Amino acid sequence: MKVLLINGSPHKNGCTYTALHEVETTLQQNGIETEMLHLGKAPVSGCIACMNCMTTGFCFQKDIVRDIQMRLDEFNGIVIGSPVYYSAPTGQLISFLNRLFFATEKRMAGKLGASVVSCRRGGASATFEQLNQYFTICNMPIVSSQYWNSVHGFTPDDVNQDKEGLQTMRVLGQNMAWLLKCIESGKKAGIEKPTYEPRLRTNFI
């Protein structure tokens, strides 16, 4: 079992990383393999609605998005982390996620999803809700914690003083590890993933 943690902050070891690392450590302590992906500071192109991925299953742009699309089957869960930019995730992360999810909706189904947000003071809940929309449109169960998954602070040192926030991250890691093990046990007992109806789309003009 393996979880991909996506750091959508331009700062590799900043506040968002501090929160994600707390989740990652707890997952590892519970026997779950992890991989941390930092998007970095290089621009990530947005979706251009060419629809090519509808036939190939992969974005035509050969970059970090396509790299993860090619490896999706490795991961049983995805944790997305972002700082708050005007009550929203970073633009770079949104470009990454729009392309990642649009081309791989069916392959996302059944994977566990969770969002983690870092803010100095406000905007966390709006950012948290926006990130969760990617999971809810792809048949991905969302893992929760004892509070909304956010930490507060302007620096990593500040975040390390947010004891409640860090505890929320640890509980999130525990819950994800537990659910992953439950799913694995279900598979061994013969419980298969749901078989879905053909997708219907209603377009109103």
Task: Describe the structure in your own words.
- By secondary structure, this protein is of the alpha/beta class.
- The protein has a single domain (2-188), classed as 3-Layer(aba) Sandwich (Rossmann fold), CATH 3.40.50.360.
- It is 43% helix and 15% strand.
- The chain has a 5-stranded parallel β-sheet with strand order 2-1-3-4-5, with helices on both faces.
- Helix 6 (124-136) links the parallel strand 4 (112-119) and strand 5.
Question: What is the gist of this entry?
Answer:
This protein is α/β, with parallel strands linked by helices and 205 residues long. It contains eight helices and five strands.
Q: What class would the helix/strand composition place it in? A: alpha/beta
Strand residues, percent: 5-15%
- The radius of gyration is 17 Å
Please give the largest β-sheet. Answer: 5 strands, parallel
Order of helices and strands: EHEHHEHHEHEHH
Q: Which stretches of 5+ consecutive residues score pLDDT under 50?
A: none
- Helical region count? 8
In CATH, the topology is named Rossmann fold
CATH superfamily: Flavodoxin domain
Q: So, CATH architecture?
A: 3-Layer(aba) Sandwich
Number of strands: 5
Count of discrete structural domains: 1
- The pLDDT mean sits at 95
What is the helix fraction of residues, given as a range? 40-55%
Instruction: Please list the strands of the largest sheet in the order they lie side by side.
Output: 2-1-3-4-5
